[in-house]
Specification:
The chain has one helix spanning 2-20; strands at 22-27, 31-33, 36-38, 41-47, 51-56, 59-69, 78-82, 85-90, 96-100. The protein is an alpha+beta fold. It has one domain. The chain has a 7-stranded antiparallel beta sheet with strand order 1-4-5-6-9-8-7. Strands 2-3 form a two-stranded antiparallel sheet.
C-alpha cells in the first residue's frame, strides 16, 4: 500500500514538473526561429536549460535558447519579435523568458 501511494505521488510530481515547462503560444503571422519558418497557428513550447522545442501536430523544431529570469512575473505568454524573427518568449505566470539566438535566414 505504501509503495503504491509513493508511486502515485511520484507520478503526480512528474506530471506537475513536466507541465511547468510547457506553454501554448500563438503566432498570428509567419515567424522565423533559428532559421526555420513557422506558419501562423498555435504551438506548444517546451524547454530545458538550453533548448526550446516548438510543436504543432507533426511539426517539431528545436532551437538553442538562453533561459533568463525577469524582474517580475509575466501575466501572459508574450512573443517579442524583430521583423519575422522571434527574439524571445516570455512565459505567462512565471518570470522566465526564453531568449533565442539570432541564427539562420529563412527568407531564401
Amino acid at each position: 500500500m505504501v509503495k503504491q501511494l509513493l508511486f502515485g505521488f511520484a507520478t503526480l510530481a512528474l506530471a506537475v514538473a513536466s507541465a511547468a515547462s510547457s506553454y501554448n503560444v500563438t503566432f498570428y503571422d509567419p515567424v522565423v526561429i533559428n532559421g526555420s519558418k513557422l506558419q501562423p497557428g498555435s504551438y506548444r513550447v517546451e524547454y530545458n536549460e538550453n533548448t526550446a522545442t516548438i510543436k504543432q501536430g507533426k511539426t517539431v523544431m528545436q532551437a538553442p535558447v538562453k533561459v533568463e529570469t525577469g524582474d517580475q512575473k509575466f501575466r501572459a505568454n508574450v512573443v517579442r519579435m524583430d521583423g519575422p524573427a522571434v527574439q524571445e518568449i516570455r512565459l505567462g505566470g512565471t518570470n522566465t523568458k526564453l531568449v533565442f539566438e539570432k541564427t539562420g535566414d529563412a527568407t531564401k
